[in-house]
Amino acid sequence: MGVNFKMVAITLQGLEEVLSNELKQLGAQDVKAGVRMVEFVGDEGFMYKANLYLRTAIRILKPIIKFKVKNEDDLYKNLLKIRWEKYLDVHGTFATKGTNQYSGITSNTHYLALKTKDAIADYFMAKHDARPDVDIKHPDLKVNVHIDRYGFCTVSLDSSGDSLHKRGYRMNTNLAPINEVLAAGLVLLSGYDGEENFIDPMCGSATILIEAAMVACNIPANINRKEFAFEKWKDYDENLFFAIQDSLIKKIRDPKCKIMGFDKAPSAVRKANENIASANLEEFIGVHHINFFNSKKEVFGPTTILFNPPYGERLKLDNIEGFYKSIGDTLKHHYHNSSAWFITSDIEALKHVGLKTSRRIAIKNSDLDCKFVKYEIYEGSKKAKKNDY
């Protein structure tokens, strides 16, 4: 067993509990959910595993020091005290990122990142008469500085690099594609675990379908990623990383259900199939050129239906009320024995679905405040004209 240390997983607003559950199931210790983040404890191998496996994390940070600051000068002096050669060679490269909630320091995040960069460069110049270069795209070390509203500054190393929503499988997208982390979060929030059929009736470029299939097959979310930031760290253990990766691959399973998507646009079907092939999931997902409003359920047994219909500024519709009414009518008449979920920011349009929601979860899609709603479609749902608004 390696030495345990605290880590922070960053996530989207509304997915904190989902990510906490993921971490607990993966074996994390001392899991504590916050706002858009979850703290946990694990060793180096667990850090590799978290980056590889977690579906709802955007990045995994490893805090190295925490101190109180009063102003910019205070921040600079404290950053100079860190022994940076532990993490970075003098001829290496680095990048900095800053976030601040404290009123005593400028809220300009670019300035905060610049101040951090200056401190690291000046540290090396004073000790080695040379300094590492800044490389925004592919640095050897990504340093994250966060100052909370009480003036406590946490300096962390970013173990992920590029945001973990960049899974590595998406080759083509349609207009307003859903973020992979959000798609995975919706699948997990719906309770889907691969035990029943899954349909995305407006599948677009197939992001939700791919994330659902990865859940059903227990495929690590980031198995297709080309690199993680920790692979450039001075203490990176390649043998340990490959051992962790192999152990996760051995737990992949074949799904027990049908996973399928529909789209009325031939171009969307083509892009969906290209992305599914890129994720190596062709044998598990079928995509069909079908208009959902002309469809009916053709699979036996319980089915999870999850889709991301047009709403808000994302995609404009001329008759949004009629569109949502058609969704409700199609579900009522043709999709018995199903749980239907969808995400929308158009709360008014929801009133026209004509079905009673059994769950409503607040969630963010980019800057949009959304609701993720569930409808239970029983045999008798045709009669359920009343809704809960």
Automatic annotation (TrEMBL):
Gene3D superfamilies, alphabetized: 3.30.2130.30, Vaccinia Virus protein VP39
Keywords: Methyltransferase, RNA-binding, Transferase
Pfam families reported for this sequence: RlmL_1st (PF22020), THUMP (PF02926), UPF0020 (PF01170)
A GO term, aspect molecular function: RNA binding
Protein name according to UniProt: Putative N6-adenine-specific DNA methylase
SMART domains: THUMP
Stretches assigned to the THUMP domain: 46-159
InterPro entries (UniProt xref): DNA_methylase_N6_adenine_CS (IPR002052), RlmKL-like_Mtase (IPR000241), RlmL_1st (IPR054170), SAM-dependent_MTases_sf (IPR029063), THUMP_dom (IPR004114)
